[in-house]
Amino acid sequence: MDLQLNGKTAVVTGASRGIGLATVRRLTAEGVRVVGAARKPTAELEAAGAVPVAVDLAAPEGAAELVERATAELGGIDLLVNNVGGGDAVDIGGFADIDDAHWREVFDLNLFAAVRVTRAALPFLTDGGGAIVNVSSIGARRPAGPPLAYHVAKAALTAFGKGLSEELGPQGVRVATVSPGPVRTDIWEAPDGFGGKLAAAVALEQSEFLNHVPARMGMVTGRITEPDEVAALITFLLSDVAGSITGSDHLIDGGIVKSV
């Protein structure tokens, strides 16, 4: 299928690994020129064909810096993937264990980074009609249990995408949300990540714990999702082939969410 992306320009945040890196690879394979933003760009990001930009998007000034550098490199921005996120790994306790500083940190990274980057990129996106994909989480729909601050921030991000789609649709800009369940990234696989901490909490080796995750979470596919699968969905939603899709939240969770 020709996704009609060849020659377009894109900014992908949180691009150094996981879903972000897989998205960069998908987009460059489609002929898109990509700027990949990360706190610490990796060799893998550069090898994927992106222009790496080192920037802290949790800082208020980071978004303007990123867009300035991206437009200098690309000459404009057609597509935006707000993928940067995190802060869930330290949030496995109860509500009383989460202080104000942690709430602010999680919201800065998971909500306000997307708000700021979108605001900075908006003049370029509306100039020629563009597309935005925000990467949320099934935690936005299933916020019970830890990591609470992360789930609440992602719920806000999902609402942000819905509201923004209404405002920007008449200007030719589409906005969609992708909400993954467990994905085979460092969040689940790194010893100091969310998965590692959960495994330690139930006194299991991490590899054994991950083997049980699909069944415990009701994934009818029987396996954890791969980053490239999420990237494929993001790439499709950015494409002109998906020209009538906007305002919607797309689950890619192996069937965890049972509601309709």
From TrEMBL:
<dbReference type="Pfam" id="PF13561">
    <property type="entry name" value="adh_short_C2"/>
</dbReference>
<keyword id="KW-0560">Oxidoreductase</keyword>
<dbReference type="InterPro" id="IPR002347">
    <property type="entry name" value="SDR_fam"/>
</dbReference>
<protein>
    <submittedName>
        <fullName>Short-chain dehydrogenase</fullName>
    </submittedName>
</protein>
<comment type="similarity">
    <text>Belongs to the short-chain dehydrogenases/reductases (SDR) family.</text>
</comment>
<dbReference type="GO" id="GO:0016616">
    <property type="term" value="F:oxidoreductase activity, acting on the CH-OH group of donors, NAD or NADP as acceptor"/>
</dbReference>
<dbReference type="InterPro" id="IPR036291">
    <property type="entry name" value="NAD(P)-bd_dom_sf"/>
</dbReference>
